[in-house]
UniProtKB/TrEMBL annotation:
SUPFAM superfamilies: ClpP/crotonase. Its EC number is 5.3.3.8. The lineage of its organism: Eukaryota, Viridiplantae, Streptophyta, Embryophyta, Tracheophyta. Keywords: Lipid metabolism. One of its GO terms (molecular function) is delta(3)-delta(2)-enoyl-CoA isomerase activity. It comes from Aegilops tauschii subsp. strangulata. One of its GO terms (biological process) is fatty acid beta-oxidation. Pathway: Lipid metabolism; fatty acid beta-oxidation. This is Delta(3)-Delta(2)-enoyl-CoA isomerase. GO terms for cellular component: peroxisome. InterPro entries: ClpP/crotonase-like_dom_sf (IPR029045), Enoyl-CoA_hydra/iso (IPR001753). Pfam families: ECH_1 (PF00378). Belongs to the enoyl-CoA hydratase/isomerase family. It comes from the Eukaryota.
Length: 239
C-alpha cells in the first residue's frame, strides 16, 4: 500500500513493498487517503510555513499501471479502474503545494500518469522505463497533452508506446532531472521539495496558478476552472 511521513516541511508518500504497485482499488484508496491527510495538514496552517510533497516507491517499480489482472478481462471492471484513477489526478493537480515524483523504477501506463500529475519528476538512470500502452480515455489524453509538450515526444509516447529511459525522457522534457540510482533519486527529490517549500507559497495561490497553467487537464479530471473574466476579477481584487 502506501505510507505518509512528514520530514520538516516535506511530506513523503511512499508506495511500499517490492511489488509492482499496480493501481487497483485498494492502492488507489490508500493514496487518496494519504493525499487527504496532506491536504488537511495544509489547510490547518494556510498561512504557515511552506510545504511540498514527494511521491516515491520501494522496489523495482514506481508503478506498473492499473491492476488489470484483477479486472479479470471484464471491460466494465477495467472502466471502473480507469474512472477510479481520475480522482488521484484531481487530488494532485489541486494540492496546495509543490509536488515532486521520484521515479525510482518502471512507470507504465497509469504509473506514468501518476508521475505526470506531479509538478516535477526525477528519474533514476540505471534502471526503469516510462511508457504508455493503453487506450486513452479523454481525460488521459488531455493530461498527456498538458504534460508532454513536445509534439514528437507526445507522438512517440501515445502512438508508438515507446519505452523511454531516463536520459531520453529528460531530452523530451518529460522528466526534469536524472539521478544515478533509486537512493539518489529519492534524496534529490526530497532536496528539491525542501527548496520549493522554502519559498513559502500561499497554498491556495499556488494551486490556483497550477490550475490556470493546465486548465484543460484540470477540467478533464473534474476540477472547476475559472473563466478568464472571473480570473480578471480575482486578480484585480488582489491589487
Amino acid at each position: 500500500m502506501c505510507t505518509l511521513e512528514q520530514r520538516g516541511r516535506v511530506f513523503v508518500l511512499t508506495l511500499t513493498g517490492d511489488g509492482e504497485h499496480r493501481l487497483g482499488h485498494p492502492l488507489i484508496a490508500s493514496i487518496r487517503s494519504a493525499l487527504a491527510s496532506v491536504l488537511a495538514a495544509a489547510q490547518a496552517q494556510p498561512q504557515g510555513p511552506g510545504a511540498a510533497l514527494v511521491t516515491v516507491a520501494e522496489g523495482r517499480f514506481f508503478s506498473n499501471g492499473l491492476d488489470v489482472g484483477r479486472a479479470g478481462g471484464s471491460r466494465a471492471r477495467l472502466r471502473e479502474l480507469v474512472d477510479a484513477f481520475r480522482p488521484i489526478a484531481a487530488d494532485l493537480l489541486a494540492l496546495p503545494m509543490p509536488t515532486v515524483a521520484a521515479v525510482t523504477g518502471h512507470a507504465s501506463a497509469a504509473g506514468l500518469l501518476l508521475a505526470l500529475c506531479h509538478d516535477y519528476r526525477l528519474m533514476r538512470a540505471d534502471r526503469g522505463v516510462l511508457y504508455m500502452g493503453l487506450p486513452l480515455p479523454p481525460y488521459v489524453a488531455r493530461l498527456l497533452r498538458a504534460k508532454i509538450t513536445q509534439a514528437h515526444a507526445l507522438r512517440d509516447v501515445a502512438l508508438r508506446g515507446r519505452k523511454l529511459r531516463a536520459p531520453e525522457a529528460r531530452e523530451m522534457g518529460i522528466v526534469d532531472a536524472v539521478c544515478a540510482g533509486a537512493p539518489e533519486t529519492a534524496a534529490e527529490a526530497v532536496k528539491l521539495a525542501e527548496q520549493l517549500a522554502a519559498r513559502e507559497w500561499d497554498g491556495a495561490v499556488y494551486a490556483s496558478i497550477r490550475v490556470s497553467t493546465f486548465p484543460d487537464a484540470c477540467r478533464a479530471v473534474g476540477i472547476a476552472v475559472e473563466s478568464d473574466e472571473e480570473k480578471s476579477r480575482h486578480f484585480a481584487s488582489r491589487l
